[in-house]
Every structure is written in structure tokens, then in C-alpha cells.
Amino acid sequence: MLGYRFTEYLPEDPDKTPFEKLLDLFLQILTHTAGDVSEALHWLNLLDRKYGLTSDEYGMGDFIQDLKDKGYIKEEEPGGTTFIMTAKSEQTIRKRSLEEIFGKLKKARRGQHRSPYAGMGDEPTTDRREFQFGDSLEQIAMTDSLRNAQIHHGINDFRLTEDDLEVVENEYLTQTSTVLMIDISHSMILYGEDRITPAKKVAMALSELITTRYPKDTLDVIVFGDDAWQVEIKDLPYLQAGPYYTNTVAGLELAMDILRRRKTVNKQIFMITDGKPTCLREGLNYYRNPFGLDRKIVNRTLRLAMQCRKLHIPITTFMVARDPYLQQFVREFTRVNNGRAFYSSLKGLGEYLFEDYIRNRRRHLR
Fold it and tell me: How confident is the model at residue 10 (pLDDT cuts 50, 70, 90)?
């Protein structure tokens, strides 16, 4: 497009200290380096050399010392020169990922997915309605009801009748068990495009959202390449794409096994991937075919999608690639599961996932 695109200018926070400004950049770089502190500091030094991030009053050595003193990094061995991240850094990265993604969602997309269920739910809304048989006393909006009584009957003949009562609408917020599947195959870093870092950010933000705002929900994160395995939330910053094929079958089998042990009614799978399934495990051997859509692999994948549908486990696929034949496979996979699919860019991935998570947890999936 020719011309210029103007956006709102957001000036740098003048109240931030030199340490806080460098910390913001350092934590962003740590996510890209999969938690490698030495590499992140090397990048930060290069940026400082090019853009003058530090000054005579506060240099890079001061920043590294503050990182140690404030508990963001520690020496791998006492007296050594190699640093590693601490639990404080891991939690801070998760919190900032949540602020980055969920903050945009609240500004841009608030209120788009209202729950179709109302009544004796968990979360009060701003909506009011007339009293109905079965409503509890706790739901009555007393101030609004008294105002109605005064309007209807006057101050001299004041009385409160059933027709005057208004109640507060509540939303149902159901307990939900979610498994987030992240593709870590080699294609997630192919063609010069880093797809694994946005996927990690989304996983960290979602985990922070659930643990802080929806503590009754559960989130399990699994990664899949040649095989699939579960990772802890604290391990998310360290994830890297490897020299793997894409064994979607192994990921779905592990996700179903995890959800089978959960006692919640609402269960769902979110899958972030950029490619087609290219691998199967057959005993001790692997069956691999990266060329085209291998029917043997595809059929096994579709059978699992059907099994999930029978178990009332919807699968939402976030496809971060736009190849037409790959999208065709995702459409078939989604149709078989009766799930949902988003053909998302890396930039909007988090907002799509958060919207769908909040939308699903406000309804009974069965």
C-alpha cells in the first residue's frame, strides 16, 4: 500500500528508571533466546552499542549487577561467570506476556463474546431484568427495586411489590480443563520466520491468566515433534523448535489421556501449529513422510479428531501458515471434530486464542 499509516504515539514512560527500561528489553530478548541469559546479554550489548541504551551514569555492568541483586539472574556455579534465569524472571515473563496480549484484547475486543446463559451464575453483570420465580434474594438489586416502587406507587403510598423487583443478571462461569498443544517441529523456524516465540508467549500468557484469574480451571501444556511430551509452566520460556517432524497423532493421544483423568465437564484442546502431520510412531520405529499429505498419517489424525468429538472435546486449531493445501487439511480436521479453526497471523494469535478461551469457559461444552 502506498502512503503512510499513522498510529497513536505512545511516549516512553518518563517515570521508568534506567534499570526498568533495560529490563523490559532484556526479558523480551530472553523469550527469543529460550532462556539463554548469556546470549540475551550479548544481544543487549550489541543493541547498546548501536542505539546507546546506557549512559555514563548507568552502564551495562550496573544493569547486570542489579539483575543479580534483584534476583532476576544467578550464577550457574558459585563464583562462575555463566548466569541462569531464576523463578522470579520466569514469573515476570509470564506476567508481561499476559499484559501484552490480554491488554490488547481488552482494548480492542471487549464484549464481543457474551454468554448465552444467565441467571444464578458466578459473575455479576451490569444487566437488570424483572424478578422471576426461582430467583434468589441475593440477586435482587435493592436500590433499583426501591426506585421502581417509588415511581409506581408514590412516596405517600409507598410499598414494594413483586412487580417492582429487579434482579442482577449473573453469567455462568464453568470450570474448564484445557490442553494447549504447541508444535515444535523444525518448520516453526523455517524460512526466516520465528513462529515458536509467539507460541511460547501465548502459552505463558494463558497460563498466567488461568492461574491468577481462573484458579479453578486447569491448563496442561504439551509440545509435539517426533513425539509428544508434557512440559511444566515454568519450562515455557526455554522451549525451542528442534529438528523434528510433526507427530500430531502423538500430541492428540497425550492430550486425550490428560483430559481423560480430569473430572471437569468442560474439556477442550487448543493446538498451535504451522504445518501438516508428517510423522507416526509405529512401535519402536517412526513412519515419516514430509512430502504432501500422506493418507496413512492423515487418516490416523482424523480418527483421533472423531474420537475427541465423541468424547465432547472440541479442538480449536490455530494455523500460523497460509498454504492453501494445508488449510484444506485443517478444514477437514475441523469438520470431523466439529471444532473451530483460525488461520491467524503471528501478530494476532494471542488475541484469537484468548477470545476463544473466554468464550468457551462461559458455556457448557456438552
Answer: low
